[in-house]
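Attaching the record inline, Q. Sequence:
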Amino acid sequence: MTPSGTLYTLVTLDILFFLPAFIGLACLLSRAVTKPLKNFTQILDNHEDGDYSIRLNDNAKDEIGNLARHFNTFMTRIEKYHDQINDQCPEDIEVQDALKASEKERRNLLIQLQKAQKMEAVGTLAGGIAHDFNNILSSIFGYAQLAQMSRDNQEKVNNHMNQILKGAQRAADLVEQLLTFSRQKENEKKPLKLHLVVKEALKLLRSSIPTTIKMAIRVETKDMVNADPTQMHQMIISLCTNAYQTMKTSGGTLTVSLTTVDHIQPEHQRKTYFRPGPFLKLMVEDTGHGINQETIEKAFDSSFTTQEMGRGRGGLGLTLVRAIIEDHKGLSYIKNITGGGTAFFVYLPIVTKSTPSADSSTKNDLSLKSGKEVIMIVDDEPAILNLIEELLNKFDYSPHLFNNGESALNAYQEGKINFDMVITDMTMPRMTGIALAEAILSEDKNMPIILCSGYNEIITRSKIKAMGIQAFLEKPLDTYQLLSTMRTLLDKKKPDSA
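Structure, as predicted:
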């Protein structure tokens, strides 16, 4: 045979031999893999949804058998879990649903109580606040006139100006306390120095309490609790308001004490309260006419009021107080005082590990640095524009004034002036400070912007920071804080622009 004929014969024999082998292998694979998978699919298709009793044939020792065994184990667990749910009594499910709904209703009620009690408390405080503001303004006007009369005596002018500054700071503090009390914030618990909240609340309340009522304050601890500042402030105001109402006609003494205790007094303890100490113990005591035991038992009922408890004591006030205390894992107790009067006790768990206070404001630095930077100042109040202009000129800055956001943005986009910083008010007509900041930051994300506001309910500090605005200052502006913040941001920007 020729070589080519021999090759042809060999190829033909190989084809005749291997072709049946390949066909046989394909059949084996089909029986071993394809057919079992097809059977799995048919079994699954023939069962209704929700049938967890389905099982596959797992007798095979190969990979298909392993797959079937894993599937069967998984289905066994699913079926067991499903049976446990079905075995649960319908009554139990209804009870659980009712408890979820009850908790939601309780929280909604708490929010409504807070709003109602704040309205009541603000109304109670309004007269005293007006009185306090008038006293402050009288002081400011009086010393301003004295300063004008004493122009030839610089020492007297300086003394009068110091008194004006003190009066203005008192007014600013009073506004901040009112805003803190009235703001509608979500529950925000954090390590809190309760003694500072007590002092601030009592300072705010003092102007509303008649002079016939003395106030005795004993703060003997600086320990902290995990609490929401606004709710703690509201709780203290409510307790003190309820207490002094019982003494409005006859006078007396309102005593507020704050101490640290390791245990709750046995007579104050409740069988259902198991939280261990130590605790902050807040006591609010009055020397009024006292209340009977039946009234004490009903004191926390929102629908219950009585002249015996005085206007404000009981009803919404104490219902809200109890809700706040329970929300903070605390305990409350009321008792009569021998000889007349009532004492309200609050126990709150202490935060054992203290953390540094986030409110660490920089002290006035009389040696503030000057600068040569170009500053955009935007405010619709001419007096504030002139004030900041004079201040920055004094420290060698180059201020450019704008009384609205639109003109400021136009000047920035024209590019004729290379601004190093923007200081803008938040609430302005036509274009807000936030809109101005967003427009500028969209072109230069590194531009230092200081946002100022006298009242902010629109946006939180965290959102302001997330937008890229580097600082937020509350009005009235503290000139030292403004200059210090400016210098910090400008110095921080220099390495990036170098």
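The chain has two domains: 105-351, 374-497. The longest strand covers residues 252-261.

More tomorrow.
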